[in-house]
Amino acid sequence: MVQKSYSIAIVGAGAAGLSAAIAFARDGFETVLIGGLDVRRDGRTVALLNGSVRFLKALGVWPAVAPEAAPLETMRIIDDTGSLFRPPPVSFSSREIDLDAFGWNIENATLVEGLAEAARDYEYLTIITEQAKDFRAEANRAIVTLTDGSEIEANLVVAADGRNSQLRRIAGIEAHTWSYPQTALTAILAHNREHREMSTEFHTRHGPFTLVPLPGKRSSLVWVTSPKQAERLAKLDDEALALEIERQAHSSLGAMRIDGPRGLVPMSGLSVDRFGAPRLALVGEAAHVFPPIGAQGLNLGFRDVASLRDAVVDAFDDGREPGSPETLRQYQRSRDLDVRLRTAAVDGLNRTLLTGLLPADLLRGAGLLALSKVGFLRRAVMREGVLPHLGAPRLMQDASAA
């Protein structure tokens, strides 16, 4: 039995799903968010790049979470592979592209809590904590069946239900998955020295070892290494693990201590051939999964949401339905190239670290050397990394965009 009809139903209450719910409710679409919150703290943070911060400002969320975030003013890359072709360290300053910061680093759970708090204030947004168990598309609507047996009707359903998306599977959208011989150890650290708003990424033979600023003398760690090494590290007590991290960081931030929970994340990837099906659009990890390299994951998910919002608003302005085929085609066009290019870039960088082959080392080293010496190339890469110049969603162009 249909409980209620909505313009848009979002399934999944993570950061991508919550932001989608707020974005559509903000524009006056009758919206329902389906799913329970997961705010477990596991040492993971997200580096919100400038475009994502603009998006959160437009949604009215940023002022509430900004005090818990630290700016990333400098990004430093150090080749620590032991290769014969090691380039010198390369640093990128946000001021080179006229930004105060490339982005801001914040704990995942803190961001989700802030989005959830903002979502409760919207007149056009209903929140249902039941889980979705089924989906079917009909001629002019979609039906989402909940675990309690009730049904939700919507013109468009947004699947934000993660890498194991049930809606994606039901809709018959094929997902291509792969794994890497790596595991990421995540943790929150306190340290003796100031990080000076600098993110430091050591490229090691097992993957990147990255320290990203948090407020105060604190940083988040993403240590990508072999599964065996990650398991060994995870078994250490806090004092022994902090000492291992300090050694791997070459004591760049002084003595360290563990200042929060830890996590272990197997490294994997996922891509899809299409970002939608009749009455259904995929966003976030339902559409793409990245290893935690280059701050692409959630930033790309927010770009999905902002692009889908543009397609829905354009459809409304043209007298079309949110879930119309043309809306979904516009969304597909807006995401296809962006996602594929970034998937290839992150995958390629990670694999060059793992190969140990001299040609791959030479290519990677030459690339870093070119970035350090060629000014216009550096600036172009920095701008593209923060926010693509062409095709940027409207809410990421200007925090006050309609």
UniProtKB/TrEMBL annotation:
- Which SUPFAM superfamilies would you find in this protein's record? FAD/NAD(P)-binding domain
Q: Which UniProt keywords are listed?
A: FAD, Flavoprotein, Monooxygenase, Oxidoreductase, Signal, Ubiquinone
Which lineage is the organism of this entry classified under, starting from the top rank?
A: Bacteria, Pseudomonadati, Pseudomonadota, Alphaproteobacteria, Hyphomicrobiales
Protein name listed in UniProt: Ubiquinone biosynthesis protein UbiH
Domain of life of the source: Bacteria
GO BP terms: namely: ubiquinone biosynthetic process
GO molecular-function term, one example from the UniProt record: oxidoreductase activity, acting on paired donors, with incorporation or reduction of molecular oxygen
**Signal sequence segment:** 1-25
Looking up Pfam families in the UniProt record yields: FAD_binding_3
Respond yes or no to whether keyword Oxidoreductase is given for this record: yes
